[in-house]
Amino acid sequence: MDKETVENSTYVFIDASNIIYGCRADGWRMDFKKLYEYLTKRFSAKRVLYYAGVEEGNEKQLEFYNHLREWGYELVLKPVKHYRQEDGTMVRKANADVDLTFDAMLYWEKYGRALFLTGDGDFYRLIAHAKANKQRVWLIGNAKRTARELKKLMKHEFTNLSDLRHALEFFK
User: What is the CATH number of the domain that holds 61?
Assistant: First the structure.
């Protein structure tokens, strides 16, 4: 791949649970078909990678993931694990953050622009490194649930997910 092609290639990395729960916290649901269209049109995304958990036997979830694949998403799925906290409450977690970070570095030489959909402060080091070394980096996340240090780092390249609600909301 020549240098110009790489510089003009945008890869999108989606922390699915962060985005889904961020929308839910604001009282709406994401339409992922609209999101894919938005990402490919607005950012000329070459690849849209979606990181999430998968629960064994959850047919509704598997059907949703099949739709995502049909629309063009590349899925990176981890088995959901169930943990009991000290207070007795159950927690579900897929731990896909390492996969997202690994892939962002694995494909490093293939893209010049990156878009991260997350608010998780655990991604600070990755996003800061991308911002310092890539042609352009954007961050989209729920403003109330996005780590303060990420918003400070990204400044005007941070978009509050709720500002996109009018274009990306799911309606039955």
Answer: 3.40.50.1010
